[in-house]
Amino acid sequence: MKTDFKLLVNGKLIDGVSTFDVINPATEEAFAQCPRADEALLNQAVAAAKAAFPAWSALTADERGAYINRLADAIEARIDEFARLLTAEQGKPLDQATYEIGGSIYTLRAFAAMRLPDQTLRDENGNTVIEHRTPLGVCASITPWNFPVILLANKIGPCLIAGNTMVSKPAPTTPLTTLLLGEVAAGILPPGVFNVVCDQNELGPLITGHPDIAKVAFTGSTATGKKVMASAAEGIKRVTLELGGNDAAIVLDDVPAKIAAQKVYAGAMANAGQICVAIKRAYVPEAMYEEFCTEIAGLAETAVVDDGSKQGSTIGPIQNRMQYEKVRDLIEDAKTRGRVIAGGEMPDRKGYFIPPTVVADLDEDAPLVREEQFGPVLPVLKYADIDDVIARANDSPYGLGGTVWGMDQQRALDVARRIDAGTVWVNQHLAIDPNIPFRGSKQSGLGSEHGLAGLMEYTQAHVINAVPLAAEPA
Ligand code: NAD
Questions:
Q1: What is the rounded CA–CA span in Å between residue 267 and residue 428?
Q2: How many CB atoms lie within 10 A of CB 329?
Q3: Which stretches does DSSP call E strand in 394-458?
Q4: Cystine design at 344: which of 54, 305, 340, 416 (Cβ 3.0–4.6 Å)?
């Protein structure tokens, strides 16, 4: 596996000012060094992106789309290398890593094909009003560690097709796949159009406060999102914030317990629960509660918790020690308040492994119910009344996603409409599509990613309002 990584600044692959260890979370051992950028290197990257902007934005969208498609093709040609590296730095099983890279390629291609044509807002009595969209300039991408590649692709695609240039900064614990993407891009995109800098959590405020950065596209925790928004306020920078969630799954009383348990389990435990829209609380009708608990506990017991590079592993480690300790502490606290029906004990081995854990009989105010756990542990809660469960689902500062499960689809849709979240899925989960807008309500985010709405976030609306000039003085 590749161990020699470089930053990408102005089309050149360069060393940083120092390096830091990248840890494989399955072994807790450093397996590569990441080059670190300082403020001067960040400034060089921003200056390169600024210098590249006039020529890049002057290309047609079709020309820019062709570049993005070539980037997608080049990633596809190295998909196995990307996937293995993603498993090594992030921990997820290799098949899930391959799926993430495949989704990133698909996302880049979707944006390469997306266009924002001029809108004629009025054309009557000689008055023509047109709204067209212009790029913003240099945009920054700041990404977290749970899906380092696809969350970056979600930003590169709309940023570049709209005519902007980019400086991207990955999370310190998962920088390598972003650096590999930078290496691939270096051979394809004009110098400065896409730059990669890495840090150990120092560059964020310098990026969000940088006078030459027009927009910050941020995915990460709500706590950091608040800092990003406050810092961006100084320059009235555009921001999109894709933040944390505490998504509820509501199971309606017409669903067989076995089916409900399968769906909820899959939605809670994929990527070891480290998904912004993972099912983080399950609400189950009183009458089927015990049967549901038995079924979901059975599924948890069949999980293969192991190094993601080992064939057959279904749940890899938590990505980093800090998050591992947070999830472990939430489980320890939940043990004192509820009934652990699966998992709960940390294996005695190297690596940040947590077995899929399910906790029943918790009160609504238990930390595992109120907070975003971001790990493979699910509280299962009981309800008797549909209005009550909707109120409980909505009683959260978060509003990212949610799911409703019901055999009577219309009834499930009626419940879904009452959930205060950016996206509510009915009888499916994680149907995220680059052509469909994705956003959080309340403290789960601001602005949209994906779809035309997401593409517009990388543009300035520009209205031209014209009437003919009379040949004679009035
Ligand atoms: P985080 O907020 O700790 O870090 C995210 C990024 O912000 C990292 O690159 C980090 O280096 C950078 N950063 C740190 N301090 C900064 C500052 N002051 N200014 C600017 N940037 C700064 O998040 P995390 O722990 O890496 O990721 C997990 C969180 O991300 C969870 O809350 C999860 O729900 C959320 N998430 C949301 C979505 C979504 O689309 N809504 C998707 C994935 C993850």
A1: 9
A2: 11
A3: 398-399, 402-405, 425-426, 441-442, 445-446
A4: 340
Where helices occur in 113-270 by DSSP H, the ranges are: 150-161, 176-186, 204-208, 222-233, 257-269
CA 196 to ligand 1 center in whole angstroms: 17
Cβ–Cβ < 8 Å for 413, 405: no
Element spanning 40, H or E: helix 39-58
Q: Is 90:319 a contact under the CB 8 Å cutoff?
A: yes
**DSSP codes, 358-375:** EEES--TTSHHHHS---S
Q: What is the per-residue pLDDT for 251? A: 98
442 Cα to the center of ligand 1, angstroms: 17
| Residues 6+ positions from 434 with CB-CB distance below 8 Å | 106, 107, 110, 111, 154, 157, 450, 451
- The amino acid sitting at 160 is L
Strand partners, 240: 217
pLDDT of residue 310: 97
> Taking CB atoms and a 6 Å cutoff, what residues make up the pocket around ligand 1?
142-146, 151, 169, 171-172, 201, 204-205, 208, 219-221, 224, 227-228, 242-245, 276, 372, 374, 400, 440, 445
Substitution candidate for ligand 1 out of 34, 42, 142, 326 with most atoms within 8 A of CB: 142
Domains of the chain with CATH codes:
7-243+444-463 (3.40.605.10), 247-426 (3.40.309.10)
Mutate to test the pocket of ligand 1, among 36, 150, 199, 224 (most ligand atoms within 8 A of CB): 224
Q: In what order do the strands lie in the sheet with 165-169?
A: 12-14, 7-9, 194-196, 165-169, 138-142, 215-219, 238-242, 445-446
Return the pLDDT at 299. Answer: 98
- Count other Cβ atoms within 10 Å, centred on residue 368: 22
Any idea which residue has 């964020």 for tokens? 204
Q: Is 63 a catalytic residue?
A: no
Which residue from 170, 198, 195, 175 is spatially nearest to 185, judged by alpha carbons?
A: 195
Identify the three-state secondary structure at position 98. helix
pTM for the predicted model, two decimal places: 0.97
pLDDT at 2: 87
Catalytic residue among 242, 295, 372, 457: 242
Q: Which atom of ligand 1 is nearest to the CA of 245?
A: 34
Closest CA to 42 of 143, 138, 132, 186: 138
Q: Cα of 228 to ligand 1 centre, how many Å?
A: 10
Q: What is the Cα 44 distance to its own chain's centre?
A: 27
Structure confidence at residue 308 (pLDDT): 98
